[in-house]
Amino acid sequence: MTSTDDRPLRRDAQLNRDRIIRAAQEVFAQRGLAGTFHNVADQAGVGLGTVYRRFATKELLVEAVYEQRLADFVGTVEAALHAPTGWDGLVDVLSTAARLHATDRGLRDVVLTRGHRPRSFAAFTDRMEPLLNQLVDRARTEGSLRADVTAEDLPILLALISEVAMHGDPVRPGIHARYLQLLLDGLRRSPTAGALGEPLARRELDAIADSWLPRLDHT
After folding, report:
1. Which of the residue ranges 14-18, 60-64, 116-120, 192-196 would you say has the lowest mean pLDDT?
2. For the HTH tetR-type domain, which residue ranges apply (predicted)?
3. pLDDT: is 192 or 188 the higher one?
């Protein structure tokens, strides 16, 4: 077989791969990571075997769909560090994350998921944690963020808003923004704010996340 004969096969394979990724974006956005290869194959209009030939595991498909979007969000957090104030940056990050979680259940699951994850997603977490710590430290130092809030509080707050978005937005689109604003008001430093108690240690945050947040399904 000549290289001329090979080229159409490679083009077909790339077209199928692109079609599968687009279909997976739609399936995961609607169903979260509970979406299956069968769902993706049906959405793409291809056979199940074609999906498996392009992506041997669900992790590989999830990575192909969301790797760039996670990188873009890291860029959002990096830009927030240069906002006029730490509070402005924090509000931008939380508002952007809430909007993304509300419009794409798969992205929500990717950011909050526990258990085995694609390697690039572990790198995303490694990049995000120091950036969020810097942002929280800046807002606290400037006096806009209450002094007893830590970066470990942010995943819990995002999970709460994500739950409101997942269950409330289908009833009233955008209702999560109301509760995001309530949370933001509660994060502001105030002389009348009640004490929060001891902040979460990282091991405690991990324990809570393991029992609450979604896990990546291999099917």
Report:
1. 116-120
2. 14-73
3. 188
Q: Which domain holds residue 172?
A: 66-212
Token digits for 40? 């993706």
Is there a contact between 49 and 57 (Cβ–Cβ < 8 Å)? no
Is pLDDT of 4 > 50? no
Residue 149 sits in a domain of what CATH number?
Answer: 1.10.357.10
- Taking the CA of residue 148 as centre, how many other CA atoms within 13 Å lie in the half-sphere pointing to its CB? 11
Structural domain tally of the chain?
Answer: 2
- Is there a single domain that holds both residue 89 and residue 178? yes
pLDDT exceeds 60 at position 51: yes
Of 190, 77, 204, the residue nearest 153 (C-alpha):
204
Q: CB pairs under 8 A, 24+ apart, for 73-76?
A: 73/97, 73/100, 73/111, 74/124, 74/127, 74/128, 74/131
Q: Find out whether 139 and 145 touch, Cβ atoms under 8 Å.
A: yes
Mean pLDDT of 138-156: 93
Query: How many Å separate Cα 61 from the centre of its chain?
Result: 16
Phi, psi values for residue 214, rounded to 5°: -65, 155
